[in-house]
Design goal:
- The chain has a seven-stranded parallel beta sheet with strand order 3-2-1-4-5-6-7, with helices on both faces.
- The longest helix is centred in the middle third of the chain and has 29 residues.
- It has a single domain, classed as Rossmann fold (3-Layer(aba) Sandwich).
- The chain is built from nine helices and seven strands; from the N terminus they run αβαβαβαβαβαβααβα.
- Helix 2 crosses helix 8.
- The chain is of the alpha/beta class.
- Strand 5, helix 6 and strand 6 form a beta-alpha-beta unit.
- 51% of the residues lie in helices and 14% in strands.
- Pfam families: adh_short.
- Keywords: Lipid metabolism, Membrane, NADP, Oxidoreductase, Signal, Transmembrane, Transmembrane helix.
- Catalyzes the reduction of all-trans-retinal to all-trans-retinol in the presence of NADPH.
């Protein structure tokens, strides 16, 4: 019990300290964000661009994704790049990332944010809905990391961010495939962090962010069925918290932040 309390307090104080220290600059970084066409992804694209980063917007929704890039240019943050890609498709991800490296440069910050959710009872979900949920929310992280990590290892520099969910703390009814995919992201990022430590003096960082439920279109649809257990957080606040966590090189963060203690207790 003493160890649990000590670890919890250590995590809480560590998070508070990292939150208030000077944040690492992202000016000049090349930031690739999946799911940039709307919601948290768009907000993060605008935030990183405002801090001087070159932003690569990736989404399957071509026009909305291009709109995000145009918004960055119109605000005077510099030129952003938009790439249309189904991130659940391994071959398309590899082709897209090669094109990004050729035309923009080596990605130094990868933000795996793309996600979808189908709200229904498990037995009422189709095979295609379940597969799509797992492929977009979980497998895309594998494909993007496999495409980007080699250049990071070569340069011994980079940061990989994953947008998980607090639904991975405990199962959520009517969102079973979504919740399962977020459990997978948690396992992937924890394992990846430990594997990177096997490389000598590895300078590649990882951050796993667990939002509660942001006020996005996807969550609004879920909230219609589960209003009591899905309180919303404004998507811009979520995006800001994720970017700050990356800039402060935090390994794990919850949004709202006080849920990190719950995470530690569960572990």
């Amino acid at each position: 019990m003493f160890c649990i309390i000590a670890n919890t307090l250590w995590a809480m104080f560590g998070s508070i300290w990292r939150y208030f220290v000077a944040k690492k600059s992202v000016s000049g970084e090349i930031v690739l964000i999946t799911g940039a066409a709307q919601g948290i992804g768009r907000e993060m694209a605008l935030l990183y661009a405002s801090e001087g980063a070159t932003v690569v917007c990736v989404d399957i929704q071509e026009e909305s994704n291009r709109k995000t890039a145009r918004m960055i240019s119109d605000l005077g943050y510099g030129k952003a790049h938009a790439y249309t890609c189904d991130v659940s498709d391994y071959a398309k991800v590899m082709d897209m990332c090669q094109e990004v490296e050729r035309t923009v440069g080596n990605v130094t910050i990868l933000v795996n944010n793309a996600g979808i959710a189908f709200v229904n009872r498990l037995c009422a979900m189709s095979k295609e809905e379940i597969e799509r949920n797992i492929c977009v929310n979980a497998l895309s992280h594998f494909w993007m990391i496999k495409a980007i990590l080699p250049s990071m290892l070569k340069n011994n520099y980079g940061h990989i961010v994953a947008v998980g969910s607090m639904s991975s703390f405990g199962g959520v009814p009517l969102l079973i495939p979504y919740s399962v995919s977020k459990y997978a992201i948690q396992g992937l990022m924890e394992s990846l962090r430990k594997e990177l430590a096997l490389y000598e003096n590895c300078q590649i960082k990882t951050t796993l962010a667990h939002p509660l439920f942001a006020d996005t279109e996807m969550v609004r649809k879920a909230n219609a069925n589960l209003p009591s257990i899905l309180p919303r957080t404004h998507q811009k606040d979520v995006a800001t918290s994720i970017m700050n966590a990356q800039r402060n090189e935090m390994v794990e963060v919850t949004i709202p932040g006080h849920y990190l203690a719950l995470r530690c207790l569960i572990r």
